[in-house]
Amino acid sequence: MITAICPGSFDPITLGHVDIIRRAADMFDHVIVAVLRNAKKNASFTIEERMEMIRKVVADMPDVNVEVDTFDGLLADYAKIKNATVLVKGLRAVTDFEYEFQMALANRRLNPDLETVFITTRAENMYLASSLVKEIARGGGSISDFVPAVVREEIQNRLCKGEIEK
Ligand code: PNS
Questions:
Q1: Residue 130 falls in the annotated catalytic set
Q2: What's the gap between Cα 137 and its chain centre?
Q3: Burial of 148 by CB count in 10 Å (0-12 exposed, 13-18 middle, 19+ buried)?
Q4: Which of 10, 31, 103, 110 is deepest in the core (most CB within 10 A)?
Q5: For 39-73, how does the pLDDT look when each residue is reduced to its tens digit (9 = 90+)?
Q6: Read out DSSP for 132-160?
Q7: Does the domain at residues 3-161 carry the CATH identifier 3.40.30.10?
Q8: Which one of 9, 23, 89, 130 is the catalytic residue?
Q9: How far is the CA of 140 from the centre of ligand 1 (A)?
Q10: Distance CA 80, CA 36 (A)
């Protein structure tokens, strides 16, 4: 059985992430969507909120084996703990490549049993990023094409309460 990890900040999950998770789940027996616990990063949503949104989204994928988890520290070490041998990364543009290539090489050095697999994004998601979605929402634009409905509602609630910085 091959376990693959889709790691990220997911602040919040976008339709670009959903597409990569879905495609990874079609390729591997077990997929762990792993949310990085990173106190340094100024996140809009707590870890629990991000995990809850991801759980609701993956509940729409009952035919595949997807787990939602969180991790701290090095991804290479977390993969060992979870017996995962594949890291799945979405590649949007050439600009992603250099950083992702560096990470893939470092992760392989840290954990030689771990293979990084890149999945190219769909053309319509090439420019999509969590930060961009929040910026569009702050500016009053529609984010329906960019995030699942559950995330859109959550962002709109936050904006109404002034909980996402303007
Ligand atoms: O969604 P993001 O913020 O682009 O995800 C980045 C993530 C979580 C994949 C990356 O920061 C990561 O793997 N962090 C864990 C620490 C680690 O292992 N760093 C890489 C050392 S080679």
A1: yes
A2: 19
A3: buried
A4: 31
A5: 666 899 999 999 999 999 999 999 999 999 999 99
A6: HHHHHHHTT---TTTS-HHHHHHHHHHHH
A7: no
A8: 130
A9: 30
A10: 16
User: What DSSP string describes the chain?
Assistant: --EEEEEE--TT--HHHHHHHHHHHHHSSEEEEEEE--TTS--SS-HHHHHHHHHHHHTT-TTS-EEEEEE-S-HHHHHHHTT--EEEEEE-SHHHHHHHHHHHHHHHHH-TT-EEEEEEPPGGGTT--HHHHHHHHHTT---TTTS-HHHHHHHHHHHHTT-S--
Give the tens place of pLDDT for each residue, 136-149.
998 999 999 999 99
In angstroms, the CA 158 to CA 161 distance is: 5
Q: Domain ranges for the chain, please list them.
A: 3-161
Please say if 22 is a catalytic residue.
no
> How far is ligand 1, taken at its centre, from the CA of residue 75, in Å?
7
| Least confident interval from 67-71, 97-101, 120-124, 158-162 | 158-162
